[in-house]
Design goal:
It contains ten helices and 15 strands. It is of the alpha/beta class. Bound molecules: (2R,3S,4s,5R,6S)-2,3,4,5,6-pentahydroxycyclohexanone. The site of (2R,3S,4s,5R,6S)-2,3,4,5,6-pentahydroxycyclohexanone has 6 residues, from helix 7.
Length: 340
């Protein structure tokens, strides 16, 4: 049986998922799409036999919908997730689960009332081959205890709607989840340092920033977030451990090295991916396939609503740290048994 998926939100990420489900994912098909911009919804669905709506609720109720992929902007997630729960539909929800911790806590509470998990959160780095290898290396213990992570997260440019807060709750939220997952530790405090902004960033945007996490296992993590670096998409992470260090994202695996003559002189250089859709294409493919396979088996795997809540709580502390310049502790609720 093929899983009929409603894709909610057909912007850059949603349209990419529609294409993926239609062309790459096995055991699933696009049953409906929804976007407030009807032309954009129709464009994403071109050539696919599916329902097209402007209202997410109508798409969830369309014939043949068995599951939902939510790729609308973060503030719209909560309403769609709760509507999906009312219909008992499993959901793959793009990050962030919600931009605020209170909204994410309401999702966690709603799943508890249902007595079962329905949500996987789209922290796709957990499906990236480089991250998977780093996680296996750290878990194997040969490098000893991890002491620090040095992370760099760069986008060529930010979209027009991007705000200073989104550097933390839309971009660094990936490092929040990667830190919790790689180290198996919770983040307990966040500090944000802001250098004089790049003159190439939009005037209202404090870009770049340096975000520091402390964890309950005593590790320290620094994240450079720079969303208008100009030259491409780069995500790097070096884990410094007691007996060695390991680094991913240096371009060995995801880049092409080109040798050519430019202006009569030999040049050697690599290509940098332009954006996350290209850099993490394999990870998105694996993530969606894993979600479809688990859904067929009635399971939820990967990062869940609790991980989405923990990430939102850290992001909220991070936004407060941005505004105040202070070190802000993270206060997590108690983890319910459903997420043990
Ligand atoms: C975007 O939404 C993503 O998820 C990307 O991975 C991240 O690099 C970018 O900064 C976000 O805005």
């Amino acid at each position: 049986m093929s899983l009929g998926i409603a894709v909610i939100g057909t912007g850059k990420m949603g349209a990419d998922h529609v294409r993926r489900i239609h062309r790459t994912t096995s055991g699933a098909h696009v049953a409906a799409v929804a976007d407030p911009d009807e032309a954009r919804a129709k464009e994403a669905a071109a050539g696919i036999d599916c329902a097209v709506h402007t209202d997410p609720a109508a798409a969830l109720s369309a014939p043949g919908v068995d599951a939902v992929l939510v790729a609308s902007p973060g503030p719209a997630h909560e309403a769609t997730l709760l509507a999906a729960f009312d219909r008992g539909l499993p959901v793959l929800c793009e990050k962030p689960l919600t931009p605020d911790a209170a909204g994410a806590a309401r999702i966690v509470a709603a799943e508890q009332r249902l007595g079962r998990r329905l949500v996987q959160v789209g922290f796709m780095r957990r499906y990236d081959s480089e991250y998977v290898r780093l996680k296996a290396l750290l878990d194997g213990g040969s490098l000893g205890r991890p002491l620090m992570l040095h992370c760099r997260h760069r986008n060529a440019s930010s979209p027009s709607f991007f705000t200073t807060e989104m550097l933390v709750n839309d971009s660094v939220v990936h490092e929040v989840d990667a830190t919790r997952w790689l180290l198996g530790q919770e983040i307990t405090a966040v500090t944000v340092l802001r250098p004089a902004p790049s003159s190439y960033a939009p005037p209202a945007l404090a870009d770049p920033q340096l975000v520091l996490f402390e964890t309950d296992g005593g590790a320290v993590v620094d994240v450079e977030i720079f969303v208008n670096c100009g030259f491409g998409y780069q995500v790097r992470c070096e884990a410094v451990c007691e007996r060695g260090s390991a680094e991913i994202g240096t371009g060995q695996e995801h880049a092409l090295t080109v040798q050519s003559a430019v202006d009569g002189r030999g040049r050697r250089g690599g290509e940098i991916p332009p954006d996350y859709v290209v850099r993490f294409a394999d990870a998105y493919d694996r993530q969606v396939q894993a979600w479809v396979d688990a859904t067929h088996e009635g399971r939820v795997e990967g990062p869940g609503a609790w991980d989405g809540y923990a990430a939102a709580a850290v992001s909220e502390a991070g936004v407060r740290a941005q505004r105040t310049g202070e070190r802000v502790p993270v206060l997590l609720r108690e983890r319910p048994a459903l997420y043990a």
